[in-house]
Amino acid sequence: MRDQPKILDCENEPLANSGLIQPGGALLFMEKGSRQFRYVSANAESLLGEPAADLLGQDGDDWLAGVLPDMGALPTAAGQRLQLTAGVDLGAGDLDVLITTTGSGWLLELEPSVPADQAQQPPSLAAITDTMTTEQLHHVQQQLVDAIRRVIGFERVMLYRFHPDWTGEVIAESAAATAKTYLGLRFPASDIPAIARALYAQTPYRHVPDTRATPIPILSRSGEATALDLTWSDLRSVSPVHVQYLENMGVMSSFSVSIMVDGRLWGLVACHHPSAKTIPLARRDDCRALVSAYVDHFKVYQRSVQQEIHQDLTQSLDRLQAALDAGAPIATAFADQFAPLAQRFSASGAALWVDRDLTLLGDPADPEALSALHDWCLREQSDAIAAFDQLPEALLSQLADQQRGFSGFLSIGMRALRHGNALLQLYLLRPEEVSEIAWAGDPEKPLAATPDGLRLSPRDSFDKWVEVRRGFSKPWSDTDRFAAEQLRERLMQLL
Ligand code: BLA
């Protein structure tokens, strides 16, 4: 009898607790309470001149005072970093030092220092402006990938943006003429599992100099399995599944810089090189600074978009207010303001319920379909604002194709206190938009047959694979949601 197919569970691989590092440097862990070296990587002697067995148990403060007498106090906040370029030489040449505070102590990572080519100024992005158009943002995005490629000399540097469903898209690229391009291609969410994304949200970047390098074990005095949390380690070993992925892509060295916006992982600058390549600590830091400058630009762009929304809505709502003041019923006042709102939200139609009264606006869908939608939302939806680019299963089975007339909706609900506490529910409707998504390889293909059975393993082809998507509307963006929140807030003040 055949064994049950084995499905590799990417979401449960304990990435931060591998007990291994990449061999480009040595790692020491100084425990907070005892202030001793509790864990040391097995390759310590080659860089630090002392075998791991001798370093284990040593007083970390004493050791640091010996090798880095001018260092000053250790950083205290978790995730906080202290770095010194060519800070020490213990017999094997200058070493760069990175000290990172973790919940239970300090990670000390030392790696051979690479002298800078010249005292070269790292490239920078355009100066920050007060407002920014989409075109200007695209320009800065291109500057970012070009600048990072100049700093690290990799073959391909991509700006990879996450969509709300955690699939991702390459939205800008800087690549050698001979390199394959991924610009415009979409990648499934499973390529970067949630457990990996959670790590990248806490660290500035992920550096993999050589996928073929043999990882080094981290040792402890008692020889017990290492439970050390490597979340903040630059040297953390690479998941074997991801090594396979990179090999399938023809990549031997990779580097990804995290882009955080409003506390959320917005995207990555993903960099590839076909041969092994180490990026010196100081250059990794330059890339981090470039990404931080990009985030500043992006925030200006975000603010510009929000200001524009604010102005648009103010105009519409001032007119709505005037109509209400002149005694018009809510539905009538709304109907007169529908055109600009429809344009703002790319809506083909809308439905407004004021208690049990329905008003159809724009290119109306079938009232029966809208009643079904309204009932479903009242039953299943508790959020004041909800957006769907595909109809929920329950509605799809209930409504015939020709009856629907819309595939996506955004609902905004509130109480109109000054109008008899009426329950107001506005649905902005979007028609079906048959679209093509250009995936990098068939996204349904990660289930591969192996000698052990089926495995969820990385795709072996990243060639463009076009999916035709039906039954979806144009997706509701963050900007749409922001506009909906603004609209609801302003309506609540008004009504
Ligand atoms: C990690 N996957 C990653 C990383 C990237 C990607 C950027 C971060 C590490 C790095 O920089 O190399 C994916 N790389 C991409 C994508 C692009 C790119 C989408 O350049 C597009 C341009 N991967 C799979 C499957 C699994 C998987 C099926 O395809 C799991 C079964 C896992 N990916 C996986 C894991 C990591 C990862 C576990 C974490 C690696 C680590 O940090 O140790």
UniProtKB/TrEMBL annotation:
SMART domains assigned: GAF (SM00065)
InterPro entries: GAF, GAF-like_dom_sf, PAS-like_dom_sf, PAS_2, Phyto_chromo_attachment, Phytochrome, Phytochrome_cen-reg, Phytochrome_PHY_sf
Keyword Hydrolase: no
Pfam families to which the protein is assigned, alphabetical: GAF, PAS_2, PHY
Any one of the GO BP annotations: regulation of DNA-templated transcription
UniProt keyword list: Chromophore, Photoreceptor protein, Receptor, Sensory transduction
Molecular-function GO terms, alphabetical: photoreceptor activity
Record domain Phytochrome chromophore attachment site: where: 136-292
Gene3D superfamilies, per database record: 3.30.450.270, 3.30.450.40, PAS domain
PANTHER family noted in UniProt: SENSOR HISTIDINE KINASE, TWO-COMPONENT SENSOR PPRA
The protein's name: GAF domain-containing protein
Organism: Thiohalocapsa marina
Source organism phylogeny: Bacteria, Pseudomonadati, Pseudomonadota, Gammaproteobacteria, Chromatiales
